[in-house]
Protein backbone atom coordinates (compact mmCIF):
# COMPACT_ATOMS: atom_id res chain seq x y z
CA UNK A 1 0.00 0.00 0.00
CA UNK A 2 1.06 3.61 -0.28
CA UNK A 3 0.08 7.03 1.02
CA UNK A 4 1.14 10.26 -0.63
CA UNK A 5 0.26 13.79 0.38
CA UNK A 6 -0.21 17.23 -1.12
CA UNK A 7 -0.88 20.10 1.25
CA UNK A 8 -1.44 23.85 1.25
CA UNK A 9 -2.31 26.43 3.89
CA UNK A 10 -3.53 29.96 3.24
CA UNK A 11 -5.13 32.81 5.18
CA UNK A 12 -8.44 34.28 4.07
CA UNK A 13 -9.53 37.61 5.41
CA UNK A 14 -13.24 36.95 4.88
CA UNK A 15 -15.82 35.64 2.48
CA UNK A 16 -15.94 32.40 0.51
CA UNK A 17 -13.19 29.84 0.04
CA UNK A 18 -12.81 29.24 -3.70
CA UNK A 19 -11.70 25.74 -4.64
CA UNK A 20 -12.12 23.54 -7.63
CA UNK A 21 -12.99 19.90 -7.23
CA UNK A 22 -11.93 17.50 -9.99
CA UNK A 23 -15.43 16.06 -9.92
CA UNK A 24 -17.31 19.28 -9.22
CA UNK A 25 -18.70 17.80 -5.99
CA UNK A 26 -20.68 20.20 -3.78
CA UNK A 27 -19.00 18.91 -0.64
CA UNK A 28 -16.09 21.24 -1.36
CA UNK A 29 -15.33 24.10 -0.86
CA UNK A 30 -15.61 24.09 2.91
CA UNK A 31 -18.08 26.51 4.47
CA UNK A 32 -16.68 29.70 6.01
CA UNK A 33 -19.82 30.36 8.06
CA UNK A 34 -19.74 29.77 11.80
CA UNK A 35 -21.38 26.44 12.63
CA UNK A 36 -22.08 24.32 15.67
CA UNK A 37 -19.93 21.33 16.43
CA UNK A 38 -20.61 17.94 14.90
CA UNK A 39 -20.34 14.77 16.97
CA UNK A 40 -17.75 12.03 16.49
CA UNK A 41 -18.64 8.97 18.56
CA UNK A 42 -15.78 6.50 18.84
CA UNK A 43 -17.45 3.28 19.97
CA UNK A 44 -15.12 0.64 21.41
CA UNK A 45 -16.42 -2.83 20.76
CA UNK A 46 -15.52 -6.48 20.18
CA UNK A 47 -17.00 -9.68 18.82
CA UNK A 48 -16.94 -11.31 22.26
CA UNK A 49 -18.79 -8.43 23.94
CA UNK A 50 -22.36 -9.49 24.79
CA UNK A 51 -23.77 -5.98 25.21
CA UNK A 52 -21.94 -4.42 22.28
CA UNK A 53 -24.81 -4.95 19.79
CA UNK A 54 -27.00 -2.86 22.09
CA UNK A 55 -24.35 -0.16 21.87
CA UNK A 56 -24.33 -0.46 18.07
CA UNK A 57 -28.10 0.00 18.04
CA UNK A 58 -28.02 3.04 20.30
CA UNK A 59 -25.31 4.61 18.14
CA UNK A 60 -27.36 4.02 14.98
CA UNK A 61 -30.41 5.58 16.63
CA UNK A 62 -28.33 8.62 17.58
CA UNK A 63 -27.17 9.00 13.97
CA UNK A 64 -30.72 8.62 12.63
CA UNK A 65 -32.05 11.29 15.00
CA UNK A 66 -29.31 13.77 14.05
CA UNK A 67 -28.74 13.24 10.35
CA UNK A 68 -25.52 14.85 9.16
CA UNK A 69 -24.43 15.89 12.65
CA UNK A 70 -23.31 12.61 14.24
CA UNK A 71 -20.65 10.24 12.89
CA UNK A 72 -19.74 6.90 14.45
CA UNK A 73 -16.50 4.92 14.24
CA UNK A 74 -16.58 1.39 15.65
CA UNK A 75 -13.16 0.45 17.00
CA UNK A 76 -12.48 -3.21 17.79
CA UNK A 77 -10.04 -3.19 20.69
CA UNK A 78 -9.50 -4.62 24.14
CA UNK A 79 -10.21 -7.95 25.78
CA UNK A 80 -13.39 -8.71 23.83
CA UNK A 81 -11.91 -8.09 20.38
CA UNK A 82 -11.35 -11.55 18.93
CA UNK A 83 -8.83 -12.86 16.43
CA UNK A 84 -11.00 -15.08 14.23
CA UNK A 85 -11.60 -13.02 12.24
CA UNK A 86 -9.37 -10.19 13.39
CA UNK A 87 -11.21 -6.86 13.21
CA UNK A 88 -8.58 -4.96 15.18
CA UNK A 89 -6.34 -2.24 13.75
CA UNK A 90 -2.86 -1.01 14.75
CA UNK A 91 -4.53 2.10 16.20
CA UNK A 92 -7.18 0.74 18.57
CA UNK A 93 -5.00 -0.10 21.58
CA UNK A 94 -3.60 3.43 21.98
CA UNK A 95 -7.01 5.02 21.45
CA UNK A 96 -8.50 2.70 24.06
CA UNK A 97 -5.68 3.36 26.54
CA UNK A 98 -6.29 7.12 26.80
CA UNK A 99 -9.97 6.82 27.82
CA UNK A 100 -9.83 5.46 31.42
CA UNK A 101 -12.48 2.88 30.55
CA UNK A 102 -13.66 0.19 32.94
CA UNK A 103 -15.69 -2.07 30.63
CA UNK A 104 -17.16 -2.69 27.20
CA UNK A 105 -18.95 -1.39 25.29
CA UNK A 106 -17.98 2.19 25.91
CA UNK A 107 -17.65 5.28 23.79
CA UNK A 108 -16.16 8.73 23.71
CA UNK A 109 -18.08 11.75 22.46
CA UNK A 110 -15.59 14.04 20.73
CA UNK A 111 -12.94 12.69 23.15
CA UNK A 112 -14.33 15.21 25.62
CA UNK A 113 -14.37 14.75 29.40
CA UNK A 114 -17.87 14.84 30.88
CA UNK A 115 -17.40 14.41 34.67
CA UNK A 116 -21.00 13.38 35.34
CA UNK A 117 -20.94 10.75 32.56
CA UNK A 118 -17.50 9.23 33.19
CA UNK A 119 -17.57 5.43 33.20
CA UNK A 120 -14.60 5.26 35.57
CA UNK A 121 -15.57 7.04 38.80
CA UNK A 122 -12.27 6.30 40.57
CA UNK A 123 -10.08 7.62 37.75
CA UNK A 124 -12.50 9.48 35.45
CA UNK A 125 -11.70 10.03 31.80
CA UNK A 126 -13.42 10.39 28.44
CA UNK A 127 -14.91 6.86 28.42
CA UNK A 128 -18.65 6.73 29.03
CA UNK A 129 -21.22 3.95 29.00
CA UNK A 130 -23.74 3.72 26.17
CA UNK A 131 -26.57 5.19 28.23
CA UNK A 132 -24.76 8.55 28.38
CA UNK A 133 -23.95 8.98 24.69
CA UNK A 134 -27.14 10.79 23.70
CA UNK A 135 -26.95 13.37 26.49
CA UNK A 136 -23.28 14.08 25.86
CA UNK A 137 -23.87 14.37 22.11
CA UNK A 138 -26.67 16.88 22.70
CA UNK A 139 -24.30 19.08 24.69
CA UNK A 140 -21.64 18.99 21.96
CA UNK A 141 -24.11 19.84 19.18
CA UNK A 142 -25.18 23.00 21.03
CA UNK A 143 -21.62 24.33 21.19
CA UNK A 144 -20.09 26.64 18.58
CA UNK A 145 -17.22 25.21 16.57
CA UNK A 146 -14.22 27.36 15.67
CA UNK A 147 -13.57 25.29 12.54
CA UNK A 148 -15.42 23.52 9.73
CA UNK A 149 -14.40 20.34 7.93
CA UNK A 150 -15.31 19.28 4.37
CA UNK A 151 -14.13 16.35 2.33
CA UNK A 152 -14.66 14.47 -0.91
CA UNK A 153 -13.03 11.33 -2.24
CA UNK A 154 -12.71 9.05 -5.23
CA UNK A 155 -11.81 5.38 -5.56
CA UNK A 156 -10.48 3.95 -8.81
CA UNK A 157 -11.73 0.38 -8.88
CA UNK A 158 -9.07 -0.67 -11.38
CA UNK A 159 -6.13 0.32 -9.16
CA UNK A 160 -7.88 0.51 -5.74
CA UNK A 161 -6.40 4.00 -5.37
CA UNK A 162 -8.25 6.25 -2.94
CA UNK A 163 -7.85 10.01 -3.40
CA UNK A 164 -9.12 12.17 -0.54
CA UNK A 165 -9.35 15.96 -0.57
CA UNK A 166 -9.97 17.61 2.79
CA UNK A 167 -10.40 21.26 3.75
CA UNK A 168 -10.49 22.77 7.24
CA UNK A 169 -11.48 26.42 7.68
CA UNK A 170 -11.02 28.32 10.95
CA UNK A 171 -13.92 30.65 11.73
CA UNK A 172 -12.17 31.60 14.99
CA UNK A 173 -8.85 31.06 16.74
CA UNK A 174 -8.06 27.67 18.23
CA UNK A 175 -6.92 27.65 21.87
CA UNK A 176 -4.08 25.37 20.73
CA UNK A 177 -1.23 26.52 18.47
CA UNK A 178 -1.39 23.16 16.68
CA UNK A 179 -4.34 20.96 15.77
CA UNK A 180 -4.43 17.55 14.11
CA UNK A 181 -6.46 16.31 11.15
CA UNK A 182 -7.62 12.69 11.32
CA UNK A 183 -9.18 10.65 8.50
CA UNK A 184 -10.84 7.34 9.35
CA UNK A 185 -11.63 4.73 6.71
CA UNK A 186 -14.66 2.73 7.87
CA UNK A 187 -16.45 -0.22 6.29
CA UNK A 188 -20.08 -1.36 6.47
CA UNK A 189 -21.70 -4.75 5.80
CA UNK A 190 -18.98 -7.00 7.19
CA UNK A 191 -20.62 -10.32 8.03
CA UNK A 192 -19.07 -12.19 10.93
CA UNK A 193 -19.47 -13.51 14.48
CA UNK A 194 -20.81 -11.44 17.37
CA UNK A 195 -21.81 -12.36 20.92
CA UNK A 196 -25.16 -10.95 22.00
CA UNK A 197 -26.28 -10.37 18.43
CA UNK A 198 -29.91 -10.95 19.46
CA UNK A 199 -29.81 -7.52 21.12
CA UNK A 200 -29.77 -5.95 17.64
CA UNK A 201 -31.91 -8.39 15.62
CA UNK A 202 -31.99 -6.12 12.57
CA UNK A 203 -28.28 -6.87 12.08
CA UNK A 204 -28.54 -10.66 12.39
CA UNK A 205 -27.72 -12.44 9.13
CA UNK A 206 -28.41 -16.16 9.47
CA UNK A 207 -26.18 -17.30 12.30
CA UNK A 208 -23.91 -14.26 12.00
CA UNK A 209 -24.03 -10.49 12.38
CA UNK A 210 -23.59 -7.46 10.14
CA UNK A 211 -20.84 -5.18 11.40
CA UNK A 212 -21.09 -1.56 10.22
CA UNK A 213 -18.97 1.55 10.71
CA UNK A 214 -15.92 -0.62 11.43
CA UNK A 215 -12.59 1.21 11.55
CA UNK A 216 -10.28 -0.27 8.92
CA UNK A 217 -7.50 2.30 8.72
CA UNK A 218 -6.46 5.78 9.80
CA UNK A 219 -5.02 7.49 6.73
CA UNK A 220 -3.37 10.12 8.92
CA UNK A 221 -1.74 7.72 11.36
CA UNK A 222 -2.31 7.21 15.07
CA UNK A 223 -2.84 10.83 16.13
CA UNK A 224 -3.43 12.68 12.88
CA UNK A 225 -1.60 15.16 10.66
CA UNK A 226 -0.44 18.40 12.20
CA UNK A 227 -2.18 21.68 11.32
CA UNK A 228 0.53 24.21 12.15
CA UNK A 229 -1.54 27.40 11.72
CA UNK A 230 -4.78 27.57 13.71
CA UNK A 231 -5.68 31.27 13.60
CA UNK A 232 -9.02 32.66 12.47
CA UNK A 233 -9.22 32.82 8.67
CA UNK A 234 -6.87 29.88 8.06
CA UNK A 235 -7.71 27.44 5.29
CA UNK A 236 -5.92 24.11 5.58
CA UNK A 237 -6.21 21.91 2.46
CA UNK A 238 -4.68 18.51 1.93
CA UNK A 239 -4.85 15.70 -0.60
CA UNK A 240 -4.17 12.08 0.31
CA UNK A 241 -3.61 9.09 -1.94
CA UNK A 242 -3.86 5.63 -0.45
CA UNK A 243 -3.79 2.27 -2.20
CA UNK A 244 -6.44 0.18 -0.46
CA UNK A 245 -5.34 -3.41 0.23
CA UNK A 246 -7.63 -6.27 -0.68
CA UNK A 247 -7.76 -7.53 2.90
CA UNK A 248 -7.15 -6.14 6.39
CA UNK A 249 -5.30 -6.62 8.64
CA UNK A 250 -2.37 -7.35 6.37
CA UNK A 251 -1.42 -10.39 8.46
CA UNK A 252 -3.60 -12.84 10.36
CA UNK A 253 -7.26 -13.78 10.06
CA UNK A 254 -8.21 -10.90 7.79
CA UNK A 255 -11.41 -9.92 6.00
CA UNK A 256 -11.97 -8.43 2.56
CA UNK A 257 -11.97 -4.67 2.10
CA UNK A 258 -15.01 -4.24 -0.17
CA UNK A 259 -14.67 -0.93 -1.99
CA UNK A 260 -18.38 -0.24 -2.38
CA UNK A 261 -18.89 -0.53 1.40
CA UNK A 262 -16.28 2.05 2.41
CA UNK A 263 -16.89 5.48 3.92
CA UNK A 264 -14.60 8.24 5.22
CA UNK A 265 -14.91 10.40 8.32
CA UNK A 266 -12.60 13.38 8.88
CA UNK A 267 -12.23 15.17 12.21
CA UNK A 268 -9.86 17.61 13.89
CA UNK A 269 -8.42 17.20 17.39
CA UNK A 270 -6.77 19.78 19.62
CA UNK A 271 -4.19 17.31 20.96
CA UNK A 272 -4.67 13.55 21.09
CA UNK A 273 -7.92 14.38 22.88
CA UNK A 274 -10.82 16.80 22.26
CA UNK A 275 -12.33 16.41 18.81
CA UNK A 276 -13.38 19.91 17.78
CA UNK A 277 -15.67 18.82 14.94
CA UNK A 278 -15.79 16.48 11.98
CA UNK A 279 -17.64 15.51 8.84
CA UNK A 280 -18.27 12.72 6.39
CA UNK A 281 -17.69 13.30 2.69
CA UNK A 282 -18.96 11.58 -0.43
CA UNK A 283 -16.92 8.82 -2.05
CA UNK A 284 -17.19 8.59 -5.85
CA UNK A 285 -16.17 5.26 -7.31
CA UNK A 286 -15.09 4.80 -10.91
CA UNK A 287 -12.70 3.02 -13.26
CA UNK A 288 -9.83 4.99 -14.80
CA UNK A 289 -7.18 3.75 -17.23
CA UNK A 290 -8.20 0.12 -16.94
CA UNK A 291 -5.41 -2.14 -18.18
CA UNK A 292 -6.26 -5.61 -19.33
CA UNK A 293 -3.91 -8.35 -18.25
CA UNK A 294 -3.66 -12.04 -19.00
CA UNK A 295 -1.48 -13.18 -16.12
CA UNK A 296 -1.35 -16.97 -16.07
CA UNK A 297 -5.07 -17.66 -16.36
CA UNK A 298 -6.45 -19.43 -19.38
CA UNK A 299 -9.58 -17.33 -19.57
CA UNK A 300 -11.83 -16.17 -22.36
CA UNK A 301 -15.03 -14.12 -22.59
CA UNK A 302 -17.28 -14.61 -25.58
CA UNK A 303 -18.93 -13.15 -27.48
CA UNK A 304 -17.29 -9.79 -26.89
CA UNK A 305 -19.00 -7.44 -27.70
CA UNK A 306 -22.21 -9.18 -26.60
CA UNK A 307 -25.92 -8.35 -26.72
CA UNK A 308 -27.65 -9.96 -23.75
CA UNK A 309 -25.49 -12.79 -22.46
CA UNK A 310 -21.85 -13.80 -22.48
CA UNK A 311 -19.83 -16.75 -21.23
CA UNK A 312 -16.67 -16.62 -19.15
CA UNK A 313 -14.57 -19.74 -19.72
CA UNK A 314 -11.78 -20.85 -17.41
CA UNK A 315 -9.38 -23.72 -18.05
CA UNK A 316 -8.38 -24.69 -14.50
CA UNK A 317 -5.17 -26.57 -13.74
CA UNK A 318 -6.34 -27.38 -10.20
CA UNK A 319 -9.58 -27.19 -8.26
CA UNK A 320 -9.64 -23.69 -6.73
CA UNK A 321 -11.99 -21.02 -5.45
CA UNK A 322 -12.94 -18.56 -8.19
CA UNK A 323 -14.32 -15.06 -7.69
CA UNK A 324 -15.69 -13.13 -10.67
CA UNK A 325 -16.93 -9.57 -10.30
CA UNK A 326 -18.27 -7.32 -13.05
CA UNK A 327 -18.46 -3.53 -12.65
CA UNK A 328 -19.78 -0.68 -14.75
CA UNK A 329 -17.54 2.32 -15.39
CA UNK A 330 -18.95 4.16 -12.37
CA UNK A 331 -17.71 1.36 -10.16
CA UNK A 332 -21.05 -0.22 -9.32
CA UNK A 333 -20.90 -3.98 -9.01
CA UNK A 334 -23.40 -5.68 -11.36
CA UNK A 335 -22.31 -9.33 -11.02
CA UNK A 336 -20.64 -11.39 -8.29
CA UNK A 337 -19.79 -15.08 -8.64
CA UNK A 338 -17.94 -17.06 -6.01
CA UNK A 339 -17.52 -20.84 -6.23
CA UNK A 340 -14.91 -23.57 -6.06
CA UNK A 341 -14.45 -24.93 -9.59
CA UNK A 342 -12.99 -28.28 -10.60
CA UNK A 343 -9.88 -28.69 -12.72
CA UNK A 344 -10.46 -28.63 -16.45
CA UNK A 345 -12.71 -26.40 -18.55
CA UNK A 346 -15.41 -24.44 -16.71
CA UNK A 347 -18.08 -22.10 -18.10
CA UNK A 348 -19.70 -19.28 -16.15
CA UNK A 349 -22.74 -17.57 -17.76
CA UNK A 350 -23.11 -13.81 -17.47
CA UNK A 351 -26.57 -12.31 -17.98
CA UNK A 352 -26.52 -8.69 -19.13
CA UNK A 353 -30.10 -8.47 -20.32
CA UNK A 354 -31.01 -5.91 -17.65
CA UNK A 355 -27.90 -3.78 -18.15
CA UNK A 356 -27.44 -0.67 -20.28
CA UNK A 357 -25.09 -0.58 -23.25
CA UNK A 358 -21.48 0.29 -22.49
CA UNK A 359 -18.13 -0.96 -21.26
CA UNK A 360 -17.96 -3.29 -18.25
CA UNK A 361 -14.93 -4.41 -16.28
CA UNK A 362 -14.53 -8.10 -15.49
CA UNK A 363 -12.21 -8.91 -12.58
CA UNK A 364 -11.41 -12.59 -12.05
CA UNK A 365 -9.48 -13.95 -9.08
CA UNK A 366 -8.32 -17.57 -9.01
CA UNK A 367 -6.19 -18.32 -5.97
CA UNK A 368 -3.48 -15.64 -5.93
CA UNK A 369 -3.89 -14.70 -9.59
CA UNK A 370 -5.97 -11.68 -10.67
CA UNK A 371 -7.07 -10.91 -14.21
CA UNK A 372 -8.90 -7.86 -15.56
CA UNK A 373 -10.77 -7.74 -18.88
CA UNK A 374 -13.05 -5.28 -20.65
CA UNK A 375 -16.45 -6.44 -21.86
CA UNK A 376 -18.62 -4.45 -24.29
CA UNK A 377 -22.41 -4.58 -24.26
CA UNK A 378 -23.82 -3.44 -27.62
CA UNK A 379 -27.39 -4.00 -28.77
- The proportion of residues in beta strands is 35-45%
In total, the number of strands is 25
> CATH superfamily name of the largest domain?
Immunoglobulins
CATH class of the largest domain: Mainly Beta
Number of helices: 3
The unreliable regions are: 1-26
Radius of gyration: 23 Å
Sheet having the most strands? 5 strands, mixed
CATH T-level topology of the largest domain: Immunoglobulin-like
Quote the distance from N terminus to C terminus: 40 Å
Overall pLDDT confidence? 90
Oligomerization category of the chains in this entry: single chain
Structural class: mainly beta
Which word captures the global form?
globular
Name given to the CATH architecture of the largest domain:
Sandwich
- The figure for the number of domains is 2
> Reading side by side through the largest sheet, how are the strands ordered?
1-13-6-5-18
What is the H/E string? EEHEHEHEEEEEEEEEEEEEEEEEEEEE
Characterization of the model:
There is one protein chain. Helix content is 8%, strand content 43%. With 379 residues, it is mainly beta. It has helices at 52-65, 92-97, 133-141, and strands at residues 3-11, 39-45, 70-76, 106-109, 147-156, 161-170, 179-187, 190-192, 204-205, 208-211, 214-218, 225-227, 234-243, 247-248, 255-256, 262-269, 275-281, 283-286, 298-302, 309-316, 320-328, 333-341, 344-351, 358-366, 369-377. A hairpin with a 5-residue loop joins β16 (262-269) and β17 (275-281). It has 2 domains: 3-286, Immunoglobulin-like, CATH 2.60.40; 298-377, Intracellular proteinase inhibitor BsuPI (Immunoglobulin-like, Sandwich). The chain starts with a strand and ends with a strand.
Amino acid sequence: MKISLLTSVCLLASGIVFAQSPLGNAQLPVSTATQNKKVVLEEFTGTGCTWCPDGHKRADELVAANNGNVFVINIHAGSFAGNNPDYKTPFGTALDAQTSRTGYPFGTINRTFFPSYAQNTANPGTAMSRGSWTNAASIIMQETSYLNVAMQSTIDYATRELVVNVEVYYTDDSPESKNFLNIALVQDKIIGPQSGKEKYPEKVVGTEYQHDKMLRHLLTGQWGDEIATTAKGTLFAKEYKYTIPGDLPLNGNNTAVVLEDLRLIAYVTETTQVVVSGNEGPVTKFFLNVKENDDKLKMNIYPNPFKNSATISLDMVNSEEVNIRVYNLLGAEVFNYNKTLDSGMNYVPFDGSNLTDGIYIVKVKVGDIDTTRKLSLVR
